[in-house]
Amino acid sequence: MVEFSGVGLRYGPDEEVLRDISFNLQPGSFYFLTGASGAGKTSLLKMLYLAQRPSRGIVRLFGEDLVNMPRHRLPGFRRRIGVVFQDFRLIPHLSARDNIALPLRIAGVSEEDLAGPVGEMLSWIGLDERADAFPPTLSGGEQQRVAIARAVIARPQLLVADEPTGNVDPDMAMRLLGLFEALNRLGTTVVVATHDIHLISRIDNAQMMRLEKGRLSDPTGALRYPPNRS
Amino acid sequence: MIIPRVPAQHRRLLPDRRLSGPTPWVIAILMLLTLLAAAAGVGLARSANAIGSAIAGRVTVQIVTANPVTRAEQAAALRRAAATQAFVRSARAVEQEELKATLGQWFGGAEGDDPVLQSLPLPALVDIDFVGENRAGHMAQLRALVAREAPGARIIPHAEWLGPVARLIRSLAWIAGGLVVLMTLASAAVVIMTARAALGTHYATIEMLHMIGATDQQITRLFQRRIAIDTAYGIALGSAVAALILLLIGWQWSGVTSGLAATASLGPAGWALLLALPLLAIALAALTARQTLLAALQKIL
Question: Which of B209, B211, B215, B298 to mutate to test the interface with A (most CBs of A within 10 A)?
């Protein structure tokens, strides 16, 4: 699904923020990415959701080399990845319904065909009544749920979430985690970056990726050489 | 497609703030000035061409013999002889009354008994138009004819004294053309700045659209459509005001029936150019916006 090998990342002439990152993400698995602030979690996620190319190393996604991939091919890969941003990044002048429908519209799905999935998604996140509300009028938790719905509406093969529970209360955090778990059961590979250690224990079979000062801690080699899931 | 088709649901990705920025108004002013400069350029160019072709093959022979009877006889003989020459299209002796009418503008009327005007020894003038373009050869033949029929007469080519005027008018036409080019470049620069400003304003939306798999073409179409529509409004406004001004000038110009001014008009080709300019401007704006946006998006992964 995702393979990083000897990946390094630097911004400009500064020293590398990520060094010698190597791992293999298995299809249908659930991963928590942890680490102190400044450890490089967001930078690693950016490479996962194709907002950043590495400075060195090999990155393969869905079996293809992304380091040397021509730019015009990236949109096709991005449509297979769902992203939940820490700051939601909802488009403020679009309603909750239109924000959720955005990935399907971009993918060229007709209005008739997207009405059903968008309606189902609104019910799933419990925002049927607020479908026509604009993001500035939604609470933090509601905005977070819309952002998650937008990330998963197109049934991505890989879901990347950056501190998705950072702005919500503990109850809402558990509900959101339940959404991710449900999606994971449907076959989506999930990577969640979080500080919340309690959250990690709530998901059975979740694996932990820990970043320390730009390096990935993998003492057993399980991330680099994962056992087959057959 | 100058203004790309974008599904209605996609158009909402950009907030609807039409005509709220300065772009349509700046474009309107530039379009107005462009059309006025273009109209002036076309009118001046046509005027210069008309004057040039009118004076290129025309000369006036001035007979200044002191005896008025001899003077009249020489003029008549020269006119008759010139009219039979193959290189002459037409030859016309200017009537004394016509000369007096011209001079009367300074002496207080040709009909009066102004003693100064009546006592002036007016020269006899013969206007001659050549055939074809061989001016040097025709002048040599005319000199020989004048030497035979009216010795001592002066030959005055019209190009000698009206030529500088025609050249000046032609220079003004080129300057007007240069202004059109400069204002077109200024309009393109306004569109480039608008496109870049739009990208800056909506960067978060663009980044989001990229992250969910939108292509550069999809994003460009959104902005290209908005910029093309905004500039089209400006171009339409500027063109309407320019049309009003040109119609008003044309109405006033129609009262001018003599002199150099009467040669200035736009003609069908000039009007066609003026009508085409706004359409070309919209196309230029859309293409400039498209190239600017694509180039800017290329810098974002």
Answer: B211
